[in-house]
Amino acid sequence: MKALVTGATGFVGGAVARALLRAGTDVRVLARPDADLRNLEGLMVERVAGDLRDPASLKTALKGCHHLYHVAAHYALWAKDPAIFYTVNVDGTRNLLEAAREVGTERIVYCSTIGAIGLPEGGGVGTEDTPVSLAQMAGHYKRSKFLAEQEVLKLAKEGLPVVIVNPSAPVGERDVKPTPTGQVIVDFMKGRMPAYIETGMNIVDVDDVAEGHLLAMQKGRIGERYILGCKNLLLREVFDILSALTGIKAPALKLPRLAVLPLAYANYWFANLTGQPPRIPLEGVKMAKYKMHYDCSKAIRELGLPQTPPDVALDKAVRWFRSHGYT
To answer: In the chain, where are the structural domains located?
Structure first.
């Protein structure tokens, strides 16, 4: 059995590739010629060059693969040219899944995001069935992933054997870039957080997310979505855990979101002017309005999703960042 993994050079995709290898699956990975290959070091995988924006390269990569794990995405809170979110995340996903349909891929898992799942208007936790619309998506990343998910659902209705997974906020080892969540951990460890805006998130071990992909391939229902998460926490609670793990004092000053918003807009303007990523991501400040808390019981019940405690997952991240010179 051979599987193609897109995004294996990234945090979640790399974890999926390693989980597949542990399960005895032959793994082929799609990577751009200029990709950062640190997450593939030491892995016995077949690497093929390609790009989600190049349909011909996708057909070549898919030939001979029974399964497809589509994890690749342009994941960031800012880009100088926002068009990249849509050409990669929406058009690229459509290109890949249409290529999979043409070559006859037996089964597909598509990695979406928790940001494409709705939250109740009056507060509370979101589920796979919570109503949501494009208008509720804050920022180009979330909008593009929402639109991509709509393309996937459309193809599923047309008979494509695809299951959707929606990871929450993965943390753990080998977050090489790092991701926005990983950067929060690094900034905390470097003492760069004198203050914070209270918000909520659902923390999950990246290895549990990877296992959730394999379980979705085995047990997931075609056309269904599964939230891959663990525990709902406030940001302050995350900082308290990090403080206990590192000995670094958690920030005590909580700032009103509306007070930070003008600074974020100014930082966004300056970033567009200089081409350097903003230190205060505008989309991150906007998203802080919502407590990103979700009910993960469907994936636990139907797939058997593991539930590693958040303090264990955060400890893995802290140890890895520290041992690899990030702090």
So the answer is: 2-172+202-229+293-308
Q: Are 131 and 197 in contact (CB under 8 A)?
A: no
Both tokens of 299, joined, read 């994936």
| Sheet strand arrangement including 225-228 | 46-49, 26-31, 2-6, 67-70, 107-111, 162-167, 225-228
* Tens digit of each residue's pLDDT (9 = 90 or more) over 151-199: 999 999 999 999 999 999 999 999 999 998 999 999 999 998 888 888 8
The answer to whether 225 and 34 are in contact (CB under 8 A) is no
pLDDT digits (tens, 9 = 90+) for 76-126: 776 778 899 999 999 999 999 999 999 999 999 999 999 999 998 877 899
Residue 7 contacts residue 18 (beta carbons within 8 Å): no
From residue 42, alpha-carbon distances to 6, 39, 52, 101, 326 in Å are 18, 9, 25, 32, 21
3-state DSSP call for residue 167? strand
* Alpha helices (H) along 83-225: 83-86, 92-103, 140-157, 180-189, 206-219
Helix, strand counts (H, E) of the chain: 12, 12
- C-alpha to C-alpha distance for 281 and 77, rounded to whole angstroms: 6
Alpha-carbon distance of 75 to 83, in angstroms, equals 13
Copy the structure tokens of residue 245: 């793990």
Strands 225-228 and 253-254: unpaired
Which CATH fold would you assign to the domain 2-172+202-229+293-308? Answer: Rossmann fold (3.40.50)
**Residue 237 to residue 296: CA distance in whole angstroms:** 19
